[in-house]
Amino acid sequence: MNEPERTEWQIRCAFNGFCKRALKNESINAHKEIKRRQAREISFSDLTPKEENQLYTREDFFVGSEEEQTFFAGGKEWDAKTIADAIHSLPEEKRRAVLLYYFFDMSDAEIAKLYQIPRSTVQYRRTSSFELLKRYLRNMPMTTLTGKTGNDERGLLPYPVIIAATKGEPQAMNIVCQHYVGYIAHLSMRKLRDERGNTYYGIDEDIRDRLRSKLMQAVLIFKI
After folding, report:
1. How crowded is residue 73: how many other Cβ atoms within 10 Å of its Cβ?
2. N or C: which end of the chain has fewer CB within 10 A?
3. d(Cα 28, Cα 138) in Å, to the nearest integer?
């Protein structure tokens, strides 16, 4: 009697692992290619904005869907704006610790060295932020974009969505891409330079678009 449910659960778990492996491997390749390119690239600082715009094109398939992006935190699904607002509500020193540790993969020791403060101070600022974030999110409604219930809160997509997406159904494919938007953003992070030559950590738009494309390709070849 329970065999179909176990099978569906296994497929959902396999799909999640398959997509994440595909994204991770593509991210590794993308970052390696960037390093190789940077080793032999020349400066384009003298180009006009019009000339720069002629050097690339962008896929606008996802334009208009940014407000529907969601993230998983504490076993629940939240929209991106709520997560951003929650982090922004933290005091500046706590916000920095949270962002650098969880979004830029910096250790407490690295953050401490960056700001020239004790490591224990960084750890305290980071861990003491949890209760503040919980308090903020406790009174916020969860998003219900995909109608998730029960086991779906573990970060797995509903079985019908997976089936539809593997068949190329646009709405289901969009739900899958939204589901992994946070993971894609994480994999797209790298050290960048602004127009003044200052370095900072941010999302590489080219890598993010490349990972979105790879995710859709992976979904279409996933075997049920």
Report:
1. 14
2. N
3. 36
